[in-house]
């Protein structure tokens, strides 16, 4: 038995060692990627349940790795969060989203607001000024930009965070609370924050309309959000049955593979151009 335990420890530390090395490798490659044109934003439409039209989009980060191909954030965002590189990534995303919005407008496309994801680590007193500078440089109106934040920020929710949010909203941007229901915040507690949109997490959408618990959770979120006059977006919608259920609940917008996966900028521009109903 003693031998087994020893072997177990050995295995454990080798595994930890392997992970630490992998982590370091991703970190250094990511640092390189930011300055080396390996990052890209993909866009996923948000569709109005009333009109069937595209009324927004979420910009999602991709890494075109020279050897490993297209990588999704699950691989590198956690590393970036831990190492602090998320600040550089966040700045890159803001810059590129604004540049793209500006280019699309110049090309005559009528643009719905584009959402970017913000890490809690980006949320310091300098954030509003940093965003204002980028918007101005690209001639983009603040109303064109939506900011998706997560519950971890609210839980940390000091007066300080509320003040920064108020400043962003006063500038004309709107805030959406991402992955709603997976964290610790309650709807009552939401009143403290100037958030206009709730995004129901995909984990509750998956089971609709067959899992009773998911239905109950989705119903509760939508009902209470309506009372707080929040817009409601459901993420990860994959089936017509899920869409039907969410429509009956009174959800405002849907996002998911049923309509489109996140696509490269040219493909998204083509969708906007066609102006088709999804
Ligand atoms: P998220 O903000 O919850 O983004 C939604 C995720 O769900 C995206 O994964 C999207 O591709 C995926 N998705 C959308 N519709 C469906 C569907 O119908 N079915 C399934 N199975 N998945 C769907 P993605 O692009 O891999 O991004 C993962 C997470 O990485 C995001 O989750 C977000 O938390 C983070 N992330 C992405 N881009 C950024 C960024 O620029 N900055 C920061 N801080 N985080 C980002
Ligand atoms: Ca998001
Ligand atoms: Ca989300
Ligand atoms: Ca999610």
TrEMBL record:
<feature type="domain" description="EAL">
    <location>
        <begin position="23"/>
        <end position="276"/>
    </location>
</feature>
<protein>
    <submittedName>
        <fullName>Cyclic di-GMP phosphodiesterase Gmr</fullName>
    </submittedName>
</protein>
């Amino acid at each position: 038995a003693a031998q087994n335990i020893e072997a177990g420890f050995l295995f454990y530390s080798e595994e930890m060692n392997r992970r630490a090395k992998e982590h370091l490798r991703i970190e250094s490659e990511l640092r390189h990627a930011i300055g080396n044109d390996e990052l890209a934003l993909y866009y996923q439409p948000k569709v109005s349940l009333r009109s069937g039209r595209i009324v927004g989009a979420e910009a999602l980060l991709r890494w075109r790795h020279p050897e490993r191909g297209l990588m999704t954030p699950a691989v590198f965002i956690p590393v970036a969060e831990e190492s602090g590189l998320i600040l550089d990534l966040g700045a890159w995303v803001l810059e590129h989203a604004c540049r793209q919005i500006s280019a699309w407008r110049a090309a005559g496309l009528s643009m719905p607001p584009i959402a970017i994801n913000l890490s809690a680590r980006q949320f310091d007193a300098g954030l509003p000024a940093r965003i204002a500078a980028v918007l101005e440089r690209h001639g983009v109106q603040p109303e064109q930009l939506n900011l998706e934040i997560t519950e971890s920020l609210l839980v940390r929710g000091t007066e300080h965070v509320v003040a920064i949010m108020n400043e962003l909203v006063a500038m004309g941007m709107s805030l959406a609370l991402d992955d709603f229901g997976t964290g610790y915040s309650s709807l009552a507690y939401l009143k403290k924050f100037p958030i206009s949109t709730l995004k129901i997490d995909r984990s509750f959408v998956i089971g609709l309309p067959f899992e009773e618990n998911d239905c109950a959770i989705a119903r509760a979120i939508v009902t209470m959000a309506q009372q707080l006059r929040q817009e409601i977006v459901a993420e990860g919608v994959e089936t017509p049955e899920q869409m039907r259920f969410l429509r009956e609940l009174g959800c405002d917008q849907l996002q998911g593979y049923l309509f489109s996966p996140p696509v490269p900028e040219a493909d998204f521009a083509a969708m906007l151009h066609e102006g088709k109903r999804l």
